[in-house]
Amino acid sequence: MTYFKTLLLTAFTAMSLSACATAPDPEKVCTSEWISKRSDKAISRIEKKAIRSIKPMRKASESWAKGKTPNPIQLFMLSNSLKSLEKELKNGQGIKDLKMLSATCNDPKIISNAMSGFLSKQGLPDNIIKFIEGTGVYQQLIAPNPTVVNRA
Q1: What percent of the chain has pLDDT over 90?
Q2: CB under 8 Å to 124, separation ≥6 — which residues?
């Protein structure tokens, strides 16, 4: 019984000490290389989840670029794609990682720069990217977490 108590006390002490880990110091860790590596990883997560949403956007943008209006099926697929992308950007781990990175480094542009790069990488025309970036929903999605206290 004493052995069990000692083991339990040791495990509890080890867990307590590991919980005291401090947050990284932004001045030391927020180098462009450190930010880039983590931002790329977050965007990769978003890309894996949102890849199915991008194809209908590309097709609709190609129609608009040719001066045509997308057909009703393309518009329906585009609507569903935008909803799916919105869901990923609201709840996905990639956007959460970008927001945490932004809060850690006290730089809200990390999110918008990463997302602009992501949309450009998908082959979407500039006018579609600007349209997406101009929507209120997109602006809310890329806003830093208001619950995270920014360090001055």
Answers
A1: 11
A2: 54, 57, 58, 61, 132
